[in-house]
Fold this sequence. Notes:
The two termini are 37 Å apart. By secondary structure, this protein is α+β, with helices and mostly antiparallel strands.
Amino acid sequence: MKGWTGYILRVNLTDKTWKKESFTEEFAQKWVGGRGFAAKILFDELKPGIDPLGPENKLVVALGPISGIPAPNTGKAVVAAKSPLTGFYGDGNLGTHVASQLRKAGYDALIVEGAAAKPTLLYIEDEKVEFQSAEEVWGKGTFVTNEWIYARHPKSTGVLNIGQAGENKVLYSVIRSMEGRAAGRPGIGAVMGSKLLKAIVVKGTKTIPQERAEEMKTIGIEGLKKARELDQKSGWSKQSTDAVLAWCNEVNGLPVQNMRKTTHPEAFKVDGERLNDARIATYGCPNCTMHCGITIEDKEGHESELDYENIGMLGPNVNVFDLKQVGSLNYLCDDYGLDTISAGSVLGFYADAIERGATTGDFKFGDAEKGKALLGQIARREGKVGNLLADGTLRMGKAWGKDSVNYAMQVKGLEMAAYNCKSIPGQALAFGVAPIGGHHREAWIITFELKHSTRESYGPEKAAKVIELQRIRGGLFELLVACRFPWVEVGYELENYPRFFNAVTGLNWTLEDFWKTADRAYAMIKLHYLREFPNATRKDDYPPAVWFDKANADTEGAQKGVVLDYGKYDSMLQHYYDQRGYDQRGIPTKELLAKLGIQKEAAEVEKYAKLS
């Protein structure tokens, strides 16, 4: 088998044991890597109903066949587990030297099971696995933890760690790496914390297996040069992802005041131009030539690395338009190990609930200083407020009652990213049907919708575009594993990725082959969901109710009075199901599962819920 190491490292923290396990070429080709490996492993090894924060849950770090090999943006790894936030499969990807080091150590995936008796650092170096004490940095933030690790290991070492939020099992805590990389929005950091696993450190000395290594070296380096050339030509890195903020404000798609509003006259103060002006440093992932991590000096003088999502959710969504203050909120999230998107949503929802009278408190929109204090309370689960806000918007809304859940900006428990879609139906659908909850990573169709389609349409073309982008963004790139930015942001051709895959594996795949594999991974995640929630309905694929509420429509501007239409949304959702081969509930049919070759998994699910 070429292109894969053929091995998985399984580590048990309870009894401090480990073993090297092989997998077959059939498994490799069926699931490819990354999300595919993680979804299959967790489905096979987790019993439905287990406590996500119990020792029965497992943390999977999964790589793909091009992970770590020099080519555009291949320094990525997938982290996955049963989500404590959503209650079913959750994952995320991040840039990290783990991508290359774990493969050089001889593994395509790491499975961590059980729970340690005391704070632990897991050290992996080829066939050496050590369970080292992390008591010295338990209770510390991710920046101090990184410094502590790098004082003992080279900067090229692969590192994953958590902050106080993960330690205290905040349900949207993330795993961190390097300067500003983070992943695992559905609370994968809390899973590490529940296992008393402070950090994973990886060093490898072997060669990553490749069938046609010289060819891969040539086309990989060519690709890196091309991606850099395209970036320099377009100027994308000048503003990075925050270039979209001004546009979202212009087209009434910005998250303002817990997404009650879609535009704000002060939004320009935190846009990409202002971010570029304030830049003091730039960071990127391994094997990246178009660095997106623009760093500014925050209000307290820290270096804070920003992008659009954290600016949108910690800025306009809480009515904070001071870029340095947004930087401070972001820095605290990064240090504590809080997901910035969910944290911004939680703060916005809390201020909204106080304003509506659903709860009491002294936090108001625009109060950055109080927001900082709240982030600390959340990370420490301090007091009644900190403890509740640590559980995310869905649980907050249920606790407050008074229809508060309708104002929680989440899907399936996962807070949505920084796009206000009450007048953008296609992107609302993309959030609704994202497999792990309200994530923008899966299908970002907002530019297609507003530039190449009819904004008001709820037609089948939008469902088709969501599926197309899911296969690319949540499929191809999450399986290989690589960053989508060269393709989506600067136009690096998608056809290059099968070339990389074929050079590494010796196979002869086309993009169509990846679409089937992507569909298989999506169907598998749906089976995870149905097994945990056997009474699932199509309503689970709806965005927040407030987006359909006429009382929440814009009162001025181009989208005055416009909100989503329930009947039309449901019709568009059915277009998605029909094109996907899903039933009326949004679950893959037996016929589709048979075509995808996952009948065995379907039979397992039928012990808990009926399939069509």
